[in-house]
Every structure is written in C-alpha cells, then in structure tokens.
C-alpha cells in the first residue's frame, strides 16, 4: 500500500506542477490583452476564452495534487482534537459516502461529455474566434481519473493509520512562507543557545 501511495503522490505532484504553468500562461495572455486593449486600442477576440480555459484547467487538475498533499480545507474543529485512528475512521467513512460517489459520477458523465466534445472537435460558440473548447472538456474526465487515483491512495493512508495509530508522513514540496520563517527562527534560537 505504501508503494502505491508513494507512486500516486509522485504522479499527482508531477501533474500539479505541470498544470501550475497555466498561471504563467494566464498571466501572459491577460497582460497581452490589457496591452492590446488599452495601449493599442485593438482588443483580441480570443483572450476571454483563453483565460477561462487556463483557469479551468488549473482548477480542475490541481484537485488531486491538493488531495495528495492534504491541503484540502477542513472546517471541523472537533476533527482536529481526535486521535489519528478516529480521524482515519471518519475519513474512510466519508470517502465512501461522499467522495467516491461524486468522483465516479464525474468520471462517468465527464467521459461521455468530453469524448463527444473531442469527437466533434467542439469550439466556443461564444467567441468570434471559435476557440476550441474540447481540450478543456476532456480535462473533466482526466481530472476525475487523477482524483480517483488520489482518493484510492487516501483510503490506503486511512487503513495504514487505523492499523498503526498514526498518519503516514506526507511528502511536501511547497511550504508556506510562515512555516519556513518559524522553522528558521527556531533553528537560529537553537544555534544561539548552543
């Protein structure tokens, strides 16, 4: 199980990092549109479509990455005070009650929806440029598959936690600046006292 979790985490990290570049593409296309519109008084016909496609791709494909890193928002103040074994039992229950039914629905309906859009090479009817939208619709299905893989890994994490009584450590590749500064400060204090 641990090997599957590790492979899943590496895969989702790679996908998340790859689609993070959508932020750069989104910024470049938006800046180009602002320049064309306000400096040259010649707006583009494709900028709006590109912005929602890049943002949609980023949003959809970052879900599995966030799940594999344990960064989805938890609003339950009671959950944090529970022992890890109880947290894992609750997570396991909720994955089967809510997560997997929703992901299976996303994969099933997303497959039909996106494969049809790909088959007809669907393009935007809202744009005079006729920008192809089938790649974005195909991402619905792909995002569902990546979330399914990440969800299976999370279920395995829950099972391991129930067996061992503690959560399996997650690999981190991005740290909050606040956490990094706190760690640096603690390290400096330690070195200063030695």
Report on the architecture of this protein.
The protein is mainly α and 194 residues long. Helices cover 74% and strands 0% of the residues. It contains six helices and no strands. Helix 1 runs antiparallel to helix 5. The two termini are 42 Å apart. The model has no long low-confidence stretch (mean pLDDT 88).
Q: How large is the share of residues in beta strands?
A: under 5%
Radius of gyration: 21 Å
Helical residue percent band:
over 70%
Q: How would you state the average pLDDT, rounded? A: 88
Strand runs, count: 0
Counting helices, strands and paired strands, the structural category is: mainly alpha
Low-confidence stretches: none
- Tell me the series of helices and strands, N- to C-terminal: HHHHHH
Largest sheet: none
The general outline is: flat
Compute the number of helices: 6
N-end to C-end Cα span = 42 Å
